[in-house]
Design brief:
The structure holds two protein chains of two kinds. By secondary structure, chain A is α/β, with parallel strands linked by helices. Chain A folds into two domains: 272 residues, NADH-ubiquinone oxidoreductase 51kDa subunit (Rossmann fold); 118 residues, Fumarate Reductase Iron-sulfur Protein, Chain B, domain 2 (Orthogonal Bundle). Helices cover 36% and strands 18% of the residues of chain A. Chain A has 14 helices and 17 strands. A six-stranded mixed beta sheet of chain A has the order 1-14-13-17-15-16, with helices on both faces. A four-stranded antiparallel beta sheet of chain A has the order 2-8-7-4, with no helix packed on it. In chain A, a hairpin with a 7-residue loop joins strand 13 and strand 14. Chain A is globular and about 105 Å long. By secondary structure, chain B is mainly alpha-helical. Chain B folds into two domains: 98 residues, no CATH class; 159 residues, no CATH class. In chain B, helix 1 packs parallel to helix 4, helix 11 runs antiparallel to helix 13 and helix 14 runs antiparallel to helix 15. Chain B is globular, with a radius of gyration of 21 Å. Classes of the chains: A alpha/beta, B mainly alpha. Chains A and B meet through helix 7, strand 15, strand 16, helix 10 and helix 13 of A and helix 1 of B.
Chain lengths: 482, 323
Amino acid sequence: MSALPRPVGVRPDARKSAALARPIAVLAAPEFAVLALDQGSGTASVPVVAVGDPVRLGTLVARPAAPDSVSLHAPVSGRVRAIEQRPLVHGDGLCVVIENDGAERLDTAVRPVGWNGLAGPELLERLHEAGIAGLGGAAFPAGVKLAAARTADVSMLLLNGAECEPWICCDDALMRERAADVVLGAQVMLAASGADSCVVAIEDDKPEAVAAMTTAIDAAGDARITLRALPAVYPLGAERQLIDAVTGREVPHDRLPPAIGVVCQNVGTAAAVARWVRTGWPAIARIVTVTGSGVAEPANVEARIGTTVAQLVAACGGYCGEPLSLIAGGAMTGRALGTDAAPVTKGLACVVAATASDLSPRGPERPCIRCGDCSAACPAYLLPQQLHRAALVDDEAGLARLGLADCIECGCCDYVCPSGIPLVERFRAAKARKLERDIDRLRAEEARGRHERHLRRLAAEAEAERRAFDEARRRARPADPG
Amino acid sequence: MTPVEFRTFPAPHVVGGYTVPRVMYQVLVALLPVAMAHVYVYGPGLVLQLAVAAATALLCEAAALRLRHWDASLPLRDGSVLVTAALLALCVPPGLPLWLTALGVAFAVLLAKHAYGGLGQNPFNPAMVGYVVLLVSFPAAMTSWPEPGPPWDAITGATALDALRTGLRQSYTMEELRAGPAFGTIGGAGAEWINVAALAGGAWLLARRVIRWHIPAAMLAGLAAPAALAHALDPGAHAGAAFHLATGATMLGAFFIATDPVSAATSDRGRLVYGAAIGLLTWIIRTWGSYPDGVAFAVLIANAFVPLIDRYTVPRIHGHARE
């Protein structure tokens, strides 16, 4: 193994202690569960229920429409009341709204999974059907990712417990309180992926989680599973950065982790897998950190998918002070929400009701002084300063050469920029413009192709007509007396 | 239940609190020991120079911003123009006629900075442009430094670099020159204290992470290495590394002038190349040039190479093979 690289990034104030002061609170199921068809991965699932249908807890409600969407199951028992647009974390989207009858009747399919007796491919299939998605934030179907890992014959399952972003601490709370679940989930995912070792990576600012996980791993007596404490540097929990920090190897920019024999899953996902094999519960609940100075009693709460953010906050004592901004996610990459009506999805790890004291407003934007602090902080080893210059004039070739596509939008450059330049925002806009241009280019190519085919057809038709005419004339000639 | 409304901002929602004014004012604070050593060695002339330079700089900045129809309140308070003024004032002889100081600062701010687009846009270090304009236009006034004190008297004498250059050409040996009044313990008499002060200020900037180590380290190495080599080969004709490090504007250049980020290379590797180039050029100009000190010219020449250096030192991106 080559020498491990020094993690690159920033060390913002962690702000996790408030929510960690209380144990995980299990929330009662909501009166209405709002199931977003897009759980955060970017592709909506297709509903398989109609308005008025009765559902039980764990009944399949929507099936995946693409490799990056997941199965959705009813998080409550009751009746489908609506399939309509609702505000979501990422803009409005179609949701299945289920009215809870309070009976908590289980679907017949919900029963413990004898995973030990299942062959890898079948286990993967079942895991995918259970709607297990990456709970770290991306909400990518775990079954699909593990299947790709099995195909690529990976050797290492990397469980991400780094949780590097300020405010988010749902994984920390989980590892402290339910370490055995994480270990069981790791064993199931080892079986599913065919990997022969599992490394649980945790940042060393979480000594309680490290201790609890060490105890649980020892108790399981599974030599395949080891723990690795890593320095707490944001964004170490980003997949490619974490793999680099643990293995000393970089995932090629145009490939996925299985290309170097690694598959990465979040510790929360492992715990969801454990619950699924123990009880048969599909992915219908998750732990969400509810924190910020604008929340009366910050805590980590276990909520059913489809509980609204407003209900999460209410369960934590409601708003207090003057919450200015409501952030879905952490301080560095979280998305500021317009309202608290959005429902919990599989990808929602944290909700922050931030008051003015939580937010450090950027100073007024000044010209870039080329100080280079941004490149020193960039975990992708980019030159944000030069990228920014290229982005301002939309220099497509320059942006490509400087690695716009490799920007992970972690926000480190913004964090250190003395000129207060919203770099990540500009890079996102540049990426969007690039996408638009690529689509335009494809369309133009298609149109050109169509036009050329059209011209060829016209030419062929004209040629055929001319031949037919010549033929007819030749045929007519013998009869001609001349 | 009516949903509560919130204000939305793009991520990230927290920043580190670094600002351009904070950077600039920390640089000014770090210049204090240099200014104190300067006053100790050359007398209080510097105070007047600083006052005139700062006033002229603020005036020129305000005028330029007004001409460009910019809101002057932010740029005037960012401290950048004061850093330019302070550096120029520290580089000129303390007895320089004040109108010359004002002229140099005006060139620096109006031509070198604002004619190119203002803060962040200037390819050449403004303070060094101002200094060089004065040096080539008024060489006599710009090179008449008082004898280092205390006591401070009005007699002007050759600086160590002057004495070295002319002395060597007149076939004096290093030992003879070393015994002369212009030389101190290791570097130039008096100037070595200013260099020590600049080193201290620079170390503080490094510790505060206002500057990073690449440029100063590379520049000092780029100067010390050829000096040491030449001295080893021919000790009678070349001063050693220690002399060059403790003489002239070496430390001020390494920690305060070459580190001006706007006109420097941007990547770590680029900065190593850039710094080393300044060090080497400084030594070359000091050894064979017609001006005694080479830092200002070396910085400006290296500035001109920055776009080229940047072009060839783009770092390897994570997940990409080394090109």
